[in-house]
């Protein structure tokens, strides 16, 4: 599917910029890293699976761009510090942070344990803040420049089976707005990008029937491409996106505008 996708950006649109992408070995992270590289940026690839990061690094270098593989568990503050140290040692600074790493599981709200809740929020909220604060204080604030991208998901409301994950993504969307206001004095922009159903390895794991049912709720009638999200983020990093901050950009084929797109569950009987 990616073979017929043409980048909308010039090959030098992000020349001289350094981007750090968490979850850079697969899916949206990989597509974003590649599009940043196609537009001239150097890329720091962060994730837990070294072989996938190395695959992306090879693809980036084939494009003529520079890449650094930085294996890490971003839930660990010491790993975050090490990754940022490595990025600054190699490239001197970090201009763009893409907080893409995340994860969730499906469960009815009443069955989500405290441990399960914390596991999701530790990755989608706590680790995101740790990475953001570290990159900002070590590079962006001193340089008075930078872009922080947070990744949510559509629709932007409570989603059955994902109460924990939807709450976490809503938190980072709000964080994007707050940081845009606070850090504008440093020249730092902050944006939340909200993809919908994107054709990635992770989506395939939900099963063909489930994915087909989700696809029927998309007004444009198809799944999104990872490259469509990646090119948007690369645009935001470029001079063309220089006046975009403090907002949420939805990339979902119209799902958020349409709504849930399916009937509610039946009301169960009570003992009253």
Distance between the termini: 54 Å
User: Which regions are unreliable across 5 or more consecutive residues at pLDDT < 50?
Assistant: none
Strand content: 5-15%
| Radius of gyration based on Cα positions | 19 Å
The H/E string reads EHEHEHEHEHEHHHEH
Q: Based on Cα principal axes, name the global outline.
A: globular
Q: Can you tell me the CATH superfamily?
A: NAD(P)-binding Rossmann-like Domain
Treating each run of at least 4 consecutive H or I residues as one helix, how many helices? 9
| Average pLDDT number | 92
Give a brief outline of the structure:
By secondary structure, this protein is of the alpha/beta class.
Describe this structure in words.
The protein has 272 residues and is of the alpha/beta class. It has one domain (11-251): NAD(P)-binding Rossmann-like Domain (Rossmann fold), CATH 3.40.50.720. It has 9 helices and 7 strands. The chain has a 7-stranded parallel β-sheet, with helices on both faces. The chain is globular, with a radius of gyration of 19 Å.
List keywords for this structure.
Rossmann fold; alpha/beta; seven-stranded parallel sheet; 272 residues; 43% helix
